[in-house]
Amino acid sequence: MKKFNIWTVALLLIISVSTFANTPPGNIQSTFKKMYPKANDIAWSQDDGYYCANFVMNEFTKNVWFNAQGQWAMTQTDLVSLDRLSPAVYNAFVSGSYASWVVDNVTMVEFPKWQAIIVIKVGQDNVDIKYQLFYTPQGVLLKTRNVSYLHDIFGPSTFFLN
Description:
Number of strands: 8
Largest sheet: 8 strands, antiparallel
Organism: Bacteroides finegoldii
InterPro entries: PepSY-like
CATH class: Alpha Beta
Strand content: 35-45%
CATH architecture: Roll
Protein name: Putative beta-lactamase-inhibitor-like PepSY-like domain-containing protein
Shape: globular
Distance between the termini: 51 Å
CATH topology: Nuclear Transport Factor 2, Chain: A
Helix content: 10-25%
Keywords: Signal
Radius of gyration: 20 Å
Pfam families: PepSY_like (PF11396)
Number of domains: 1
Order of helices and strands: HHEEEEHEEEE
């Protein structure tokens, strides 16, 4: 019976440590609540020294990154498809050289001091090639990035925030 109690306590300790391992400090939680007071079901993780909150708001999946000082670094909103793009970005994409490629995902990334960036991830059927296309809200293509063999393809390091 004593063995059982020791194992039970050890198991509960392991579960509690893993549950709270990604919980951010109070300053980060405070900043998050000010920005998104109605957010529920938040899953916290850590990414490259940042705390990242993942949640759904207004039917959009969002990832919000904060540095260790509790300052907002960026917000990624999954727009899913081209239907949610502004006309300027949509027209730039469909008239560009990747228009015939298959759209995998569309994401808007917002920053505290920069303009938003729209990222369209494209690929080709039956080929293992993927690219991210970075657009300004005005439809200017800033850069393309080959992400074919990258596992973690999106985060603060993508935008040199580290």
